[in-house]
Amino acid sequence: MGPTESSSELGPDHRRQNVDNQTTGIDAELAKELGYSGTHTAKIVGITYRQLDYWARTDLIRPSLSDASGSGSRRRYSYNDLLELKTIKKLLDAGIKLEQVRTVFENLRGHVGSDIAAAHIVIDGGSVTLCDQGGLIDLINTGQSVLNVLSMGGVKTELEADLQPFQAELDEANRTAAARRIG
Hints:
alpha+beta; DNA-binding transcription factor activity; MerR_fam; DNA-bd_dom_put_sf; Putative MerR family transcriptional regulator
């Protein structure tokens, strides 16, 4: 739209597009608050409704907003539920067996709680490892620490702090060595 054009001069299609763009943002936020039906959840995540139903009935993941409570009742999944379901699908796609995925999620929830978006997971063949606060935790085998991650930035900071008390002595030694070369 040019500096002299108004939205009324552009016609109803432009106004409708502007309203549609605003509505889309509002609808997305409303959907997050109200949740997602089982059918929509399955489509969004990329799984079948049968898989979703099986995972709910076997307690892999239960809908956190509204669970089925008899014939005709509907499950409502939250945004976090969708995130967990998408993660489950990714693990299965990577070749992790469903029973191992169950163990992964039990251990993952134990380490990061409900905020799995904050987790960093490494999938390597048949292993699933959580990078958590400087350590690696095997999420399949009882959630035990397997390695420590060494941050080179942390090593550098520690070395600089260790050098600080000796800095004056090192400076004097460097001045003496330089004077010997000159003289």
